[in-house]
Amino acid sequence: MTSKKTAHIVSHTHWDREWYLPYEKHHVRLVQLVDALLDKLDSSTAFRSFYLDGQTIILEDYLQVRPENKERLEQHIQAGRILIGPWYILQDAFLTSGEANVRNMQIGHQDALKYGEPSKIGYFPDTFGLVGQTPQLMLQSGIRNAFFGRGVKPTGFNNTVSDGGYESSFSELIWEGPDGSRILGILFANWYSNGNEVPVDEAAAREFWDRKLSDAEKYASTGELLFMNGCDHQPLQLDLPEAIAAAQALYPEVEFVHSNFPDYLDALNAELEKGGESGTLELSSVTGELRSQRTDGWGTLVNTASARVYLKQMNQKGQTLLEKVAEPLASIAGLAGKEYPHHLFTYAWKTLMQNHPHDSICGCSVDEVHREMVTRFDKSRHVAESIIEDSARFIAGAVDTTVFAGAVEAVPFVVMNTTGWSRTGTVSIELDAARLYLREGYGLEETSRRMQEFDLSGRVLLDDGGQALACTVEDLGLEFGYDLPDDKFRQPYMCRKVKLTFEAAEVPALGLRAYAWTTQQAAAAPAEPSLLSGGHVLENAAVRVEVAADGSFSLHHKQSGAVYHDLGIYENTGDIGNEYMYRQPDGEIPLTTKGLRAAINVTEDTPFRASIEIKHAWEIPASADARLNEEQRALVYYPERTAQRSSETVILQLRTVISLEREGKGLHIESTINNVAKDHRVRMLFPTDLQTPVHHADSMFEIAKRDNESAAEWQNPSNTQHQQSFVDVSSAQVGMTVANLGLNEYEVLRDGRNTIAVTLLRSVGELGDWGWFPTPEAQCLGEHTAQLMLIPHTGDGVTSGAYAQAYQFQAPWTTFQTDIHTGTIASGYSPLSWKGTEAAFSSMKMNETTGDLLLRWYNMSGSQAQLNVELDLPHEHLYRTGILEESTAPLPDSGDSRHLLELGPCEIATFGIHLRA
């Protein structure tokens, strides 16, 4: 430790927009805080600066109520006394997508620039663990640091810290990402409130600083000591200049400064460059994910991944619609001449991201908070759906459908694939087979009669080559509809609605294909064998699935010869924990559906897809026993609770539908649970019987490699972990990928079979943490549906294509009905094609400032990779950029439309395409 000591006191407040109080109650307190801050800054130059929690949404929230104070805010921001950004909101890391985090940084910078300069601080004060690609994302944002409170050193109840077993020797460390990116990490070793409420009184100040200086020196690598003056929703300490003066008088050997993060970093980096007092100081290096794995496992907050699963499912849908459907479609429409709706995207992303703070998306707040979140999810989704509809209409209108001009009564439509890979699969579309507008003069009764009598017989589905396709037709009957033209009043109509379901084959990546339903005579679709054998077996060229009497099933992967047994069994355990952490009652033996007879029926048998329905009536305990309520009210720490499950039972109704498509490589699973029980958890089990000490899970721009066994320090019997799109267990030759939609919690069980357990539902009745906050709606009573896909494969998930299939599973097809017309886009069109086994496609959007098309991939492997990209669009040049999309020098011109692009190991690679005017 160097002899020089400087106490850097940074004023801040950590602002959870919503948590143990609903948003508006926190909002009122925020307005009061910023009012006080502005008054203090106006009146006192001794109060030097304030850090506004790293999120620009605080400015929006404040000015919503106090718009008259905008100029005062701007004045202090531009003077460097209020530091803002770089984020729009402080998000959870593991429950939000990579693209959502990129938009968060982009919008935070855009909004900060309206007031001044964004602070280049990687701020994660209370994020519940951090993803491995954070260093790379920071460097691409021009940020060379990360300040964080969790993930490396044990942080437990009331934020106490342990006294040993640290992964870093100091609170300062070097954090390295999987691509080799290195940044300076600053751990809030004594939490982000270690300089809170500094006394002015001499005696109190001496007691305070004796303790605080000692605590900081215990972890600091240099004499630059960081003290955070603030905490959750902490009001401003108005007498801080006086408190600093009192401390300086008591400790003349220490320099006390009212500091800020940039000044602290400058001083710290200067000391680190000197190597400390000895000149030989070396910081510890920490690599990859920061998930508190070197702890006892009780305070990791990992089970927020399964609190209120319905929120995670809504978030997955909202993110996917924006980043994987609306943005690509708006880009394709933009290339065809439609204006790109940047303003709507910003609004939709902001509304969605307001649900992304850790106390929100983690499901660990009071019920009022999560009710409002549902409304926000709906609002963002409605905007996304409007963009999708407008873009799809424009694209369909630009597709040349004259190939169907000779067909009788043809009803053309376009199928769009907005994923990054060519796609074959089952598609459904609702068509207006016939339509009569009320403006046409028929009475309502006559209009309805004509539509009801419309003849649907003798029709066939044609592809763009004139070939008939097998399809099912469901008559949806008479339906009311309306158009909302841009140039006239709404146009109501009555129509005859049908639903077509068929296999769309080889729809290009980021492209489309046209079809038509017509009465034209055509050769019948070639006969295909059923995918069903009897009532209990599904089989196609890739897999054979056999359902047992108890509803479990085996899966035979034909290419590798591997057979997986006992798949799809449900597990149920009690949960006497809270929204933050799962806690199984002591000594409880899990219940399962193994051996419980199921009702098994065929629900679909077509040439392109077959489905089997499995139903269980499962008797389980109704809730925890009465002791749980007593322990909750007494604030008994959840690992120390002794409650058990009730002797009263209820019937849990389970409905599982497994579906196999003709060209499918995996098995689709839909699970519906009518939840009438409390204080419990339901998982679905997938034994792999593969011998391997590690597994892989999808994380933010990364396929994270994780150990099956927990660290030696781990005491929690449960070792659940986060996932995004999938988890995979593989041996050298074969593997099983389990993909999901919004099911963010899994565990690889230490049961000798390396079983993948995916949480479908978790029911608890309290928030947890620092007090007694009942949350009856977190019991999640009622019906819940979950979607999964099993993807067996050879080799690893990257080279086999299993991970690409899991990513494709996330995104829905887009369809749009149109008419016969000429157009500038041919069926089968895509603006680009690409090849690169190791690459995962992530994003296609347009830049608001330049109008350039931005494409992003990331390298799923730890080795150098190549992308072969061919562009079918007029462009001047390509350039490589970062996540802030700043234009850079063009890449070397290939001389034609083909480009060979290099990807570094685990690189997040963004390319701009400067379009030709």
TrEMBL record:
Residues 304-377 form the Glycoside hydrolase family 38 central domain. The keyword Nuclease does not apply. SUPFAM superfamilies: Families 57/38 glycoside transferase middle domain, Galactose mutarotase-like, Glycoside hydrolase/deacetylase. The keyword Membrane does not apply. InterPro entries: Gal_mutarotase_sf_dom (IPR011013), GH38_beta-1 (IPR041509), GH38_C (IPR041147), Glyco_hydro/deAcase_b/a-brl (IPR011330), Glyco_hydro_38_C (IPR011682), Glyco_hydro_38_cen (IPR015341), Glyco_hydro_38_cen_sf (IPR037094), Glyco_hydro_38_N (IPR000602). It comes from the Bacteria. Keywords: Glycosidase, Hydrolase, Metal-binding. Pfam families: Alpha-mann_mid, Glyco_hydro38C2, Glyco_hydro_38, Glyco_hydro_38C, Glyco_hydro_38N. Belongs to the glycosyl hydrolase 38 family. This is Alpha-mannosidase. It comes from Paenibacillus jilunlii.
